[in-house]
Amino acid sequence: MNFRELYNKLLNENITADKELPFQVERISFKKGDILTAYGAVEPNVYFLHSGIVELKIKSYVSEKILDFFFTNEVVTCLTSFLLQQPSDVEMTAIADGEAEFFTYHGIQQAYATGSLQVNKLGRILTEQAYLRKAQREKDFLSKTAEERYGEMFEFHKDYLLQIPVNKIAKYLGVHPESLSRIRKKLNS
Amino acid sequence: MNFRELYNKLLNENITADKELPFQVERISFKKGDILTAYGAVEPNVYFLHSGIVELKIKSYVSEKILDFFFTNEVVTCLTSFLLQQPSDVEMTAIADGEAEFFTYHGIQQAYATGSLQVNKLGRILTEQAYLRKAQREKDFLSKTAEERYGEMFEFHKDYLLQIPVNKIAKYLGVHPESLSRIRKKLNS
User: Fold this and answer.
1) Looking at the complex, does the CB of residue A92 fall below 8 Å from at least one CB of chain B?
2) A37, pLDDT greater than 90
3) Which residues, in sequence order, are CB contacts of B39 under 8 Å at separation 6+?
4) Distance CA A60, CA A47 (A)
5) Pseudo-torsion of CA A15, A17, A18, A20, nearest 10°?
6) What residues of chain A lie within 8 A of the CB of B138, using their CB?
7) How many whole angstroms separate alpha carbon B94 and alpha carbon B105?
8) What residues in B contact A143, CB-CB < 8 Å?
């Protein structure tokens, strides 16, 4: 899927490839290890991933935590920083080479302001999806064990799991790498 | 503030009291202990609080957690259930008598669908605010101690704190009531 197809799908539109979207969308490619948004930077973009894996990290008072992983056909940004245009507490890093399309804060704000109904609707739907994802993550963290959460990652993102270092998966689940090894052995047996 | 004033403020509008908003807004009053949305119910409404205090709770695998408290002039709903129109994992309860205005899922969806730019913009802004609040709460939980978080509640919601039972504040902070007593003594000394 490309961003135009996502736009059409979310808004029941039918904008063909020869027509322009109401705001500019550009392409970017990134390498494993690239920092897309550093701690303290103001997030300028919203990305739609064509390939690759992106992680969002935050510094806790004990260590660094991984908030979420994003895969192909998912939308990712440091959303608080993007919405408020303030320095980010969250860092976005590529953990596998990939490509993405992106639009800028300036571009979408201009489209909001010129009164585009469809762009406001798109902004509403994308923000709703970001909220639902964060609320689901919070709920999973409170109501599921690390083993159940790993089981779901395994079920839904099996192909990607091999590309994510074990210590990152452990940081995401909030367990020690040794506990994750036990969980993995149990699941594979 | 009433909901019309909130609407005008968020959208730079100037709809006077004798004119109608693009969707219906009704009034409700509630008593301490009233369950506004029960576990398993589908959330029909979004509330704008005139007075009173509302809590959102979720069942974790060890106990029940309090996700957030909402006060005068704040917007509250079980948002995941509202957006998906699915049974709620979150329960909304009044912990102090109060009054609110509310609009319904059906009402706002109709206004979205009839292509109101302003209502889509309102939905986008309210969802952005809900996201920012949840992200801030997650960040605070990871990066601040219970003492710091209680200090901020004390600073920003001093007048309300007396109305919230100590065991609820402890549940919200994620500490034992005894630890909260120590924090309170330290802060008052």
Assistant:
1) no
2) yes
3) B59, B87, B88, B89, B90, B91
4) 25
5) 60
6) 67, 134, 138
7) 21
8) 58-61, 89
Considering only alpha carbons, which residue of chain A is nearest residue B174?
A142
The nearest alpha carbon in chain A to B114 belongs to: A117
- pLDDT confidence tier of residue B110, bands split at 50, 70 and 90: very high
- What does the pLDDT average to over B68-90? 97
pLDDT digits (tens, 9 = 90+) for A95-145: 999 999 999 999 999 999 887 899 999 999 999 999 999 999 988 888 888
Q: Which ranges of B91-165 does DSSP label H, i.e. alpha helix?
A: 105-113, 117-143, 146-156, 158-161
ipTM over 0.90: yes
Angle at the Cα of B32 (from B59 to B94), degrees rounded to 5? 45
How many of the other CB atoms lie within 10 Å of CB of B95?
20
The residues pairing with B60 across neighbouring beta strands, listed in sequence order, are none
Q: Which residue of A has its CA nearest to B136?
A: A80
What are phi and psi for residue A53, nearest 5 degrees?
Answer: -130, 135
For A116, nearest residue in chain B (alpha carbons) = B117
* φ, ψ dihedrals at B53, nearest 5°: -130, 135
What integer is the mean pLDDT of B72-80?
97
Task: State the Cα torsion A67-A68-A74-A80 to the nearest 10°.
Answer: 0
CB A92 within 8 A of CB A55: yes
Considering only CB atoms, A121 lies closest to which of B61, B120, B128, namely B120
The pTM for the full model equals 0.93
Please tell me the distance from the alpha carbon of residue B73 to that of residue B60, in angstroms, as a whole number. 29
Please indicate if any CB of chain A lies within 8 Å of the CB of B89.
yes
Mutate to test the interface with B, among A92, A108, A109, A143 (most CBs of B within 10 A): A143
Chain B residues within an 8 Å CB radius of A130: 131
**Predicted confidence (pLDDT) at residue A46 exceeds the cutoff of 80:** yes
